[in-house]
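Quick start: read one record
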Amino acid sequence: YGDKKAQVPFMKQQIDKALDHLIFIHKIETDKRKISGSINGKAIGLGIFLFSILLAWGGLLYRYPVRILTSANVGDRKLPIYSVETGEPKLALTFETAWGNSDIMEILRILQEQEVHVTFFVTGEWVEAYPEETKAILAAGHDLGNHSESHLYMSRLTDSEKEEEIQCVHDKVKALTGYEMFLFRAPHSDYDDAVMEIAKDCGYYVIEWNVDSKDWKDYGTETIVSTVMEDRHLGNGSILLLHCGTRFTASALEMLIVELKEKDFSIVPVSELIYWENYYINPDGRQVSRVENP
């Protein structure tokens, strides 16, 4: 792992992110009861205990599904696209869509009014539960991306299970709409080299994100907007993470779009942001054109 002292800030950052992830998992499993601001002490204790075990195993950096953005900590690991190198002031909004349909039509309405197209990553279970909403996303001109069949931790599955998780939702969307999806995002940002290779073999570009709205924390409309606008990674080629089925995302969306436009950003779907060929991924997960940067 290299210089032990140099790892301390990184490991603290990963633990903080992993704790955030633990809260998110708890949030889903308790049917989205509000937990931000006041977390049960036993839950925190359990989290600390679990992470202590992971640290003792020496596997936190690679086994726990947290985002890794620097080459010093990934070695030769295959990276998805976290952002795109471009001189144009454009970025992509992405919505992970796996937990209900309470706000989807409102989100689509706002996007239409703002004349913005985005990318929705859907699970197979969501597609099966909400076929009309799935068709409405495509009818409105948005990208439809693959977010796996069951929202599982992909790196924990066998290779055949990984392929099934990707292909099952692909087949459902194709049967429902005729659309062939080609963008994949691993649930929980949990991927390994096998996930990357299998997704590629299934015809997918693997997409992550470099700006997190943290909308699932339910901190409020203005907090979602400020979290994005003040993120140091926000810039040309950014990919933003939002969610459907959260408490404040729909109410924050118009304000967020307006502020991004005021910063002269054009908002495009991921399919219009990424390079389709002749590119490489740099150590920060940034997709770079070989033509423009030989």
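The CA atoms of residues 43 and 49 lie 10 Å apart.
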